[in-house]
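Progress note, sequence design subtask.
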């Protein structure tokens, strides 16, 4: 898993995490972990998600949110077992247009365009493994952030 392509030490924006089903649950979990490390992390709340799906279309639930709240210098993390969901792909495209750094964490069992995101992390030979690896990936980032915080406190 490649966490070295993004410099968390100098990052000062907001992190937006998206996913569907189990990946959405993982996004909420990882957002809470990042918050505990002092990172401003957000997921789309269920009320807004379902209202947007009802009033517009489920394909645009995440892209409409990113367009409304995202700014250049922020980070969008897209979690997806398949990497094929239209709402995930549209959100990544919207973020790229705004100048938001994009990081896709997708299952390795599907073919992916390597230009789908600024950073692409592939793990898992099926849906279940892909979702397990999402949490492992998130916990690796949390450990790294906690170690950096402890280093600063000790200095």
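Output:
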């Amino acid at each position: 898993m490649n966490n070295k392509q993004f410099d968390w030490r100098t990052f000062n924006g907001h992190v937006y995490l998206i996913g569907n089903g189990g990946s959405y649950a993982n996004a909420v979990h990882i957002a809470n972990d990042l918050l505990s490390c002092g990172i401003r992390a957000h997921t789309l709340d269920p009320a807004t998600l379902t209202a947007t799906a009802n009033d517009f279309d489920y394909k645009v639930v995440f892209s409409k949110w990113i367009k409304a709240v995202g700014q250049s210098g922020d980070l969008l993390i897209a979690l997806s077992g398949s990497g094929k969901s239209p709402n995930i792909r549209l959100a990544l495209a919207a973020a790229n247009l705004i100048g938001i750094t994009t990081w896709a964490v997708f299952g390795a069992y599907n073919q992916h365009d390597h230009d789908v995101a600024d950073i692409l992390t592939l793990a898992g030979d099926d849906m279940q493994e892909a979702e397990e690896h999402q949490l492992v990936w998130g916990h690796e980032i949390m450990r790294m952030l906690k170690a950096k915080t402890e280093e600063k406190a000790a200095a």
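Residues 3 and 140 are 8 Å apart (CA to CA). Work on this subtask will continue into the next period as scheduled.
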